Sequence to fold (119 residues):
Amino acid sequence: QVDLVESGGRMVQAGGSLRLSCAASGHTFSSYTIGWFRQPPGKGLEWVSSINSDASKSYYADSVKDRFTISRDNGKNTVYLQMNVVKPEDTAVYYCTIVSGTSSPSGSWGQGTQVTVSS
Fold:
């Protein structure tokens, strides 16, 4: 069982940066691919990015490629999402979870963290 808790969301101006954290409990965290997903207001859940267990591979949705960077520190049981040059369309609740393949969620969902980008 791996439980994940998201944090770091806040209000930020367009063009700014922020970093989200996904902290895990459970000794098997380092065995899993972890992904970030988001749900914009009034819309469905969408995949953002994933990183494999040893951080040798990362994947990004086209909408965030070259702006967001995913990373992980298995010693701290944490996955990060560095968000640069944010846009109003990045406004969403962001979630992390265990992923199968590159983008299929297969774990439980936490409360998420709210990111609001003002124009």
